[in-house]
Amino acid sequence: MATSRKSSRFHNGQTITLAAILGLLTLSFTWRKCTNPQVRRESTKVAMIFGSIYWIAGCCAQLFPGADGLDPEFGGPGFPQLKIFLFFLGCGVFGGVLELSSL
Question: Phi and psi for 77 in degrees, rounded to 5?
């Protein structure tokens, strides 16, 4: 296996693991039982932050020198993921703000 393929698999594994950990943390703070309204607000804020980190990182990935969202054999350069990342980031922030406004 070529070194670049091993490196790609490493980074894919890292990305998948990071997404899973952030997702579990988001769910943990979202569904946390809170009797104190202040703790509930803080848990909601933390859940919104954890739920946004992955999407923010995805949006920022294009800022690294030489980074591209598409491999040349698939029609690069380009970054078609940006719209998806922004959509999910917006959903998380909108949901968090909506929940915070109801508390």
Answer: -80, 160
Q: How far apart are the first and last CA of the chain?
A: 54
pTM given for the model: 0.82
Concatenating the DSSP letter of every residue in the chain gives: --HHHHHHHHHHHHHHHHHHHHHHHHHHHHS---SSHHHHHHHHHHHHHHHHHHHHHHHHGGGSTT--SS-GGGT-S--THHHHHHHHHHHHHHHHHHHHHH-
Q: pLDDT tens string for the chain (103 positions)?
A: 555 677 778 888 999 999 999 999 999 999 999 999 999 999 999 999 999 999 999 999 989 988 888 877 777 788 899 999 999 999 999 999 999 999 8
Q: Tokens 């899973």 map to which residue?
A: 20
